[in-house]
Every structure is written in C-alpha cells, then in structure tokens.
Amino acid sequence: MILLQVLSPDNNISMVLFFGTIGMLALTIGLIVFISFHQRKVIRYQQQLQRMEQDQQKTLLNASIRLQEEERQRIAADLHDDAGPLLATARLYLNENFVNLDKQTQLHSIYNAKQIIDDTIQLIRNISHSLMPPTLKNFGLESAVNDLFQKISGSGSMNASSRFHDYRERLKAENELIIFRIIQELINNILKHSNASFIHLTQNTSGHRFFIRLHHDGRGLTQTDFEKLGKSNVGLGLKNIQSRLKVLQGKIFFEKDMSQTYYKVTIELNREEDLKTTTESN
Amino acid sequence: MLQKISLLSSLLPIIFFVIFCFKKATRELWVFFIVTLASCIFDILLTMSKWAFENIFLLWNLSTLVLYVLLIYFFYLIIKQNVIRIIIILLSIFYFILFFLYDKSNTEQFNSLMNTIGYVIYLILSLCYLIIALKPTSEPTNIFTPIFLIVLGLLISIASTFFLFIIASRLSKEEVHQYWSLNYYSNIVSNIIFSIAFFKSRNKRKNQPPENHLVDFTIPNDR
Description:
The complex is a heterodimer of chains A (282) and B (223).
Chain A: H1 2-7, H2 12-93, H3 103-131, H4 134-139, H5 141-154, E1 159-164, H6 173-194, E2 198-206, E3 209-216, H7 223-231, H8 236-248, E4 251-256, E5 263-270, H9 271-281
Parallel strand pairs in A: 1-2
Antiparallel strand pairs in A: 2-3, 3-5, 4-5
Helix pairs in contact in A: 2-3, 2-8, 5-6, 6-8
Chain B: H1 2-20, H2 27-48, H3 50-54, H4 56-78, H5 82-102, H6 112-134, H7 146-167, H8 173-179, H9 181-207
C-alpha cells in the first residue's frame, strides 16, 4: 500500500517514509552482514593462531625430549665407554690369582688398580660436573659464568670476558641453572658457527627486569633468523633455549649492533617471577 | 488481520521466555522479558479496550516512557563500561527533563519528538554494544549470544519504524492508522528474533559442561 502511494508523485510523506525506512533497513542488514563476516574472520584468525601456538609448543616439547635423550645417551656412552673399561681393567689387576702373586707384583697391581680407580673417580666427577657445575651451585651464576669465560679465554682461541654490574641478590638456584644452560648453549653456538674473535657478556638490572647481554664480532643471527629456525626442524639448541626461557617466562632478542660490526643477544627476565617462585617454594 | 498477527507475535517472546528460560534467566533477560511484557500489554489494551483506543496518543506517550525506562536499564546492564554507563544516566536525565517539561501535556497527537530522541539513544547504545562485542579477545568467542540477538532485533525494529515515528506527528489519526502496518511488520520480525534469543539462552545453559564432583584428580592413579 505504501509502495502504491509512493508511486503517486504528490505524496511526499509516503516517499520520505518509504525511502527512509528502506535506507535504515538496508543499513541495519548491512551492519548485521558485516558483523557476521567479521566475526567469522576473527574466529578463523584466532583458531589459526591457536593452531600455530600448539605447533610451536609441540616443536619445543619434541626438541626438549630429543635433547634429554641425547644427554642420556651421552652420559650412557661416557659411563659405558670410559668408566666401564676402566673398572674392568682395575678388576683384572685384582683378579682371583692376585693372592697367588708375589708381594712385589701384588703391590704393583694394587698401585695400578688405585690409579685406574682414581681416573674413574675423576671421570665420574667430570660427568657430574657437566650435569651440575659445582661453582654454580656453591657460588652462583656470576662465578660460574666467569669460570666458563676464563676457560674459553684460557684456550687461546678466543678472547672472552664477562661483567656482572648488579648481581647482589642471587636468583633461585633452578633459575640460575636454566640461565647458565642458556648462556652455555649460546656460547656453544658462537664457538661452533660464528668464527668470532671475542665474546663479552654483561649483566644488568632495570627495576624488576634482569638482563644478560652477549656481544660477539662473528657471524650471528637476527631475530628473524631465530624465529625462522625456531619454527623449522633444525636448530635444536635454539629450540632448547626457547623452551628454557618459557619456564622462566623470559624473552630473548637477537640483533645486529648499530655499528653493524657486532651481534648482540639480550636475555630479558622478570625478577618478580623469580621472587614469586621463591616465596611459593618457601 | 495484520494487527492481530502482530498482537499474537508479541505473545511469542513471553511464551518462549516462560518455557525456556524462566528459571535460569539472567537479570538482563528478565529486564527484557518485562519490556516484551509491557509492550504486549500496551498492544492488547490498544486492540481490546475502547477507552484505550479513544485515548490512543496518551497511551502511546505512556508506553514510550515506560519502554524507555526499561530499555535504558537493559542497555545499562549489558554495557559494562563505566564511561558509557555514565553517558546512559546523563542521557536519561536529559530525556526525562525534556519529557516532563516539554511534552507531558501532549495527548492530542503522536509524540514524535520523544520517540525520535529515544530511538536515537537506543541506536547509539546498540552501536556501542556491538562495537564492544566485536572487540578482539584472546579466546575465540561467539558473539551471537541471546543479548546480541536482542540488540539486533531492537535495531531492526528501530530501523523499520524510525521514519514512521518521525513523521507520525504530522499525520492525522486516520493517516497514522494507514501507515501503521509498517509498525506491525516490524513487531512481527523483532518478536520472532526476541523469541529466538530466549530459546538460544536455554541452549547456552544446556551446553555448559556439568561439574564433576565425583572424580578426585589428586589421586595419583588418575593422572
């Protein structure tokens, strides 16, 4: 009926009513259509993000399991290949015929067996130290890192130095170990791939944030490379760093220095998290 | 005929509410149920009562005020942002002052001014609600909730009667009745949407996973 009235040219009210209502309805329907499309798009995007995050978690978990297995295999190989033969040799010196030997030979055998047992003790100590460095346990991260850098410098192949600017309060022991392992992994990568002539580590804090920065003058990674390697199947060490940082809720940044000569790696942690976990454990 | 269908359709959301979400409805849904109830009562009065038909403009003005109070409270409940809530209160104060100072004696014609102001306020608040609902969240959430459907129904109702209410004051009683079919169509469509919203509200509750008090997850064998 309104449509018929609109068609008569004299009826202005009907025209306003008809076109106004049609316009308003078109706007509303347009809005509803836009919302449904937008909503679908947002949900798809969020699902994609979740899937990517799950994949990333899976990769990290796989990397951590593989690393654990490698570590176990290494310890097993050390014990089997080194400690096993040493103890077997010591047993040979102290076999059943030992009592029938003359005193001189007995003394000689005992001396040899003692030497081998001492070597085995040293070997087992080395394995144990590689699992948990005693300097780190007893004197903290600063001493352990200084110790590590002195060893690198002592080899003569690279100039390594470290400086802790603000480390009066030690982090929780487990967190110190995780940070130390991350530093070890980074240094291992620098030694293996970068061809650098020096490494310098600095530690600092800013408010509740704890920073560790590594500088080197060799070939390095940028953040894009790190993220790319983190998603690929290679770069097990980097994935291991990522999973360790996840435990600490920390961040890592790889970048090239302003001068384009040095690469720097910054590890950023929140000390509040460390304090929180310390309080919880207490 | 159309008027009767419209009247019957206004019973639909009430029936759906009573059947599907009477026991579990949230406060927002209760307020909207009262809106549909009040709207239905006004429709019945206008159709059935001779006195109401003779005083149709007075009744429309009264229904405008009652529905405004209820709908503005509904928007106050669904929009959680404090800034917008303060704006709602200020707009309502402005609305009431205008209603009582300017238009309360107007019982001889349709109160276009107050209806239009009310509609503009609903439009603004509906858009505010939609913008807030569309904000990205960390978890994928379905925005097609019962409240969202109610707002959509309101938007459709406003869109289809907005111009009718603007020009209604310029029309005679006969002309108003002539064009009023638009209002009936709008009523039917929005009442169907409100009914779906009440029905969906029941589904939403039903889909919630039941809490399992029987399994003790601290027992090592269950890990």
